[in-house]
């Protein structure tokens, strides 16, 4: 297990089905939702802690976290996060983002106190510029979801 990573266990029947397929030589389709979902928690703003190839995913959700990555790891951390997401997605995979407005950054650092207000002066990339950073990483914006009861705008980016 890598530092900062926690993999949720696979459902036992999935492993059992794989073992049965190996014994019979047959292959089967992946299990249906929700049994085909693996949850992983990791700090993608840091370089991988292993030399082993990282697993590839169909989708990565980053909801209500970009502001905190940016505040704590600065521009380098948010750029690294987007680049690592790109490397971790399968071709055609999706990155789903909730991008908080700059005003929420200001409120967050005020609540944090302890001189954290200075961090805003260090950040040169603003949330409205994330699209440029994502494009440089190789993503294409696929769609924007807003309204309809969503508290914030959700952006879906596709790995090329």
The tally of strands reads 6
How much beta, percentage-wise? 15-25%
Task: Specify the oligomeric state.
Answer: single chain
Q: What low-confidence regions span 5 or more consecutive residues with pLDDT below 50?
A: 1-6, 8-17
SS field, number of helical segments: 5
Q: Helix and strand string, N-terminal first?
A: EHEEHEHHHEE
Strand order of the largest sheet: 3-4-6-5
Main sheet, how many strands, which sense, barrel? 4 strands, mixed
Q: How much helix, percentage-wise, in residues?
A: 25-40%
Shape: globular
Taking the alpha carbons of the first and last residues, their distance comes to: 29 Å
Average pLDDT level? 83
Task: Decide which structural class fits the backbone.
Answer: alpha+beta
Rounded to an integer in angstroms, the radius of gyration calculated over CA atoms is 19 Å
């Amino acid at each position: 297990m890598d530092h900062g990573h926690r993999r949720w266990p696979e459902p036992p029947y999935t492993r059992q089905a794989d073992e049965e397929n190996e014994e019979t030589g047959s292959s089967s389709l992946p299990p249906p939702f929700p049994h085909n979902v693996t949850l992983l928690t990791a700090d993608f703003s840091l370089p991988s802690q292993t030399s082993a190839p990282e697993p590839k995913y169909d989708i990565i959700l980053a909801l209500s976290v970009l502001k905190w990555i940016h505040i704590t790891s600065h521009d380098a951390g948010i750029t690294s996060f987007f680049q690592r997401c790109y490397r971790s997605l399968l071709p055609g995979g999706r990155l789903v983002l909730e991008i908080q407005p700059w005003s929420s950054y200001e409120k967050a650092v005020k609540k944090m106190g302890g001189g954290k207000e200075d961090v805003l002066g260090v950040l040169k990339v603003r949330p409205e510029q994330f699209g440029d950073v994502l494009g440089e990483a190789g993503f294409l914006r696929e769609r924007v979801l807003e309204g309809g009861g969503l508290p914030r705008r959700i952006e879906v980016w596709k790995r090329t």
